[in-house]
TrEMBL record:
InterPro entries: Alpha/beta_knot_MTases, RlmH-like, tRNA_m1G_MTases_N
Reaction equation(s) it catalyzes: pseudouridine(1915) in 23S rRNA + S-adenosyl-L-methionine = N(3)-methylpseudouridine(1915) in 23S rRNA + S-adenosyl-L-homocysteine + H(+)
Protein name: Ribosomal RNA large subunit methyltransferase H
Organism from which the protein derives: Candidatus Ornithobacterium hominis
Family per similarity comment: Belongs to the RNA methyltransferase RlmH family.
Gene from which this protein is expressed: rlmH
Amino acid sequence: MKIKLISVGKTSQKEIISLFSYYKERLPKIFNFESLEIKELKNRSSLSEIEQKNQEAKLILEQINFSDFIILLDEKGKSFTSKDFANYINQKLISNQQSIVFIIGGPYGFGDEIIQRANEKVSLSAMTFTHQMIRLFFIEQLYRAYSILTNKKYHHE
């Protein structure tokens, strides 16, 4: 199986890049993890929020396949404890799904095309965080899920 993270905008903070790389390197090969950054729109200030979301949606859709299982990372999505998220990931691993794509939207969220294409929404928090931080929180929780599923000494309750 392949787990892919697509996010809008580039991560510029070296501390976040370093921590993201740290967790990415610790992920098991079975996750076949890939991270892809969609470039921010160049003419963003001249576009309405809806136009921005729609243009970002087109760029994101170019990066996904018809057979991909799409999960939007959205504060209005389903909330999990870390153990529940681990079980959620495990269910995806044992399913016949070849590729799961998690998507972090742009500053105004997701365009209608992405929302319609999505299979599910997952919330990492009801709070709002920068898109750079969400990448880090996501990959840490993905690693935590792996550690829970394999009984590694990382997660404590």
